Amino acid sequence: MSSPSTRHGTVPAGPADPVDVPGTGTAVLEIRDLAVHYGGVKAVDGITMTLAEGGISGIIGPNGSGKSTLVAALTRLTRLTRGELTVGGTRYERVRPGRVPGLGIARTFQTVRLLGDLSVAANVQLGYDARSRAERRAPLRGLPGPVAEALERTGLTDVARARPSELSYGTQRRVEIARAIVMDPRLLLLDEPTAGMNAAERVEISALMRQLRSEGLSQLLIEHDVQMMLDTCDHLFAMAQGRLLTEGRPADVVADPRVQEAYLGKGWKADAADQ
Ligand SMILES: Nc1ncnc2c1ncn2[C@@H]1O[C@H](COP(=O)(O)OP(=O)(O)O)[C@@H](O)[C@H]1O
Ligand SMILES: [Mg+2]
């Protein structure tokens, strides 16, 4: 007896070489032919990417290859020369930057940006207030539930009353991550979250990201530490000169001769880096 329909849910009409997606296999964010040109500088020049729901995607590439410009485009902080952006099924390449958090996209910056005169909890609450102005007016006895929860998820409950300046750089970065996830985003963008950190702090951030993935949070990580990318990401994109060089399983991407030449240098070995 034949089935009346051969369809099994949604099969995305995509490239011939299907994207290796973890999690549910659906896309949290789609980038189509994205270009950002600054005068004659083609910072991003025709990028098409699908970020998998529930996974950690990563981007590697040399300095100046366009990674931060891509993040600026995804958060609408820079003007697109062309391209389409879709998050959670909604096209958003024309929305104002202020609407991006409401679409479920949160980010951390390359350099830590916290208010040093406020406590850890107050910094995290800023992320919450940005979303929920109405609640800001309500008298708050203790912390709003989502703020307390974000502190808990990032292991910051014990230092909630400290000032960021009293904390290690790695812990300050966790405060930024807490401030981003308090908005309950569908996607978290992290642009070089471990820049300037020691190896132990990098491991800590990687572990936090994997914990957040296990809780269902999709993430996009930009990072120079290739070993961290191998340890953290489900899927890797390699960029060079504003373009996508290749993508796939992290180990395969790192082993790709084009990536080796553009970025890694001939002597790099995954095994040697972390043992
Ligand atoms: N606002 C800007 N105006 C002009 N050029 C820019 C601007 N932002 C970035 N660029 C240029 O775009 C290219 C990509 O930069 P960037 O996205 O910061 O790369 P990455 O993050 O990979 O190091 C570089 O050549 C950079 O100098
Ligand atoms: Mg950058």
UniProtKB/TrEMBL annotation:
Any GO molecular function: ATP hydrolysis activity
Limits of the ABC transporter domain: 29-266
Any one cellular-component term (Gene Ontology): plasma membrane
Region described as Disordered: 1-22
Pfam families per the UniProt record, alphabetical: ABC_tran, BCA_ABC_TP_C
InterPro entries: AAA+_ATPase, ABC_AA/LPS_Transport, ABC_transporter-like_ATP-bd, BCA_ABC_TP_C, P-loop_NTPase
Stated name of the protein: ATP-binding cassette domain-containing protein
Source organism of this protein record: Nocardioides zeae
Organism classification: Bacteria, Bacillati, Actinomycetota, Actinomycetes, Propionibacteriales
